[in-house]
User: Fold this.
Amino acid sequence: MPIEAESAGPSPRPASGHLEYGCHSQRGDLSQLFARWQTSPGSAYAGFQQYWHPPQPAQWLIHCPLHTSEHHSLSTPSSTGSLACVGIGITLGSHISPLARSHIESADVVFAGVSDGIVELWLQQMHADVRSLQPYYQEGKSRKQTYRQMVDAMMAEVRAGKRVCGVFYGHPGVFAWAPHKAIQTARQEGFQAHMEPGISSEDCLYADLGIDPGTYGCQHYETSQYMLYRRCIDPSAWLVLWQVGLAGDQTSKRFATGAAYRQVLVDVLTRDYPLDHEVIIYRATTLPIQSPRIERMPLRALPEADLTMSDTLAVPPCRSMQADPEIQARLTALDAGLAAEAAIPEPMT
Ligand SMILES: C[S@@+](CC[C@H](N)C(=O)[O-])C[C@H]1O[C@@H](n2cnc3c(N)ncnc32)[C@H](O)[C@@H]1O
Assistant:
């Protein structure tokens, strides 16, 4: 089962004095890698060399968390405390990056804000001291208070001189207050703090729904914020509404709102979209054995839909993009000017 395959315990450490890059099957010495990169003008990277300035191997010694113990003493003296907030992606086991795994394994204490109890069990196979942040959530308790308590719990260990790793599902910085606040607090107090990105539900949405946000553009809002404030929606781009299961909750204390609240959401959406416009309820798979939820329905049916805390609403564009003739003309004139300049022969010297 994939869960077993991904839970094989801590990854082996690289040999002393040898820097590791990539995952288990891709070990190498970074200085050799850079040497190959610099001496391969015919490689796929050749054209990028003038733009891309890779760090010197010495910098990797300081910043790369895939370290040996002596590298570690160069980067993060444990007596001063440090914080890494890492994302482990959405789907158990398959989304975690080698860097996130390395932060988890090298921490003194791990805090887990993840989507499922099974994910916590999986984390416990990577580290002996995994503390769940889940008990801070309670129906009727303000989520703001919950998030502050999560920050306090992590910061207490940082202040005690521990290397702390906060593990969050998806991307730790996407629609997630506590990791940002914890990192900001740690830095303000003089501790080293780092955010390691993860695969968010947004990334899964693009893959599962076959959307390229570059085709028409894509706007993202937290659903209640979208409802409570007058936002300028562009209906020729995609609209993605997060926390749609909590639509219209002003208390920050509920785990769900109902049909009457979603009817208000529909009324707000009809300022820009017709009632028969198709919308998509989307839920990415948390466990590799599941299939994603991709449920299409007319906008008018949304109030009666069955929505959970993990669902996201995707609204496709309902009209084509409007051209801007004035800007197009200005750019065409600039192109014509450049073409005319290029056509003038160089004077003979
Ligand atoms: C507090 S945010 C956390 C998002 C997370 N940091 C991420 O990177 O995806 C919770 C919201 O993310 C979205 N979300 C979380 N899990 C999801 C999933 N499995 N599929 C689709 N959307 C999800 C939903 O909109 C949910 O209400």
About this structure: The longest strand covers residues 82-87.
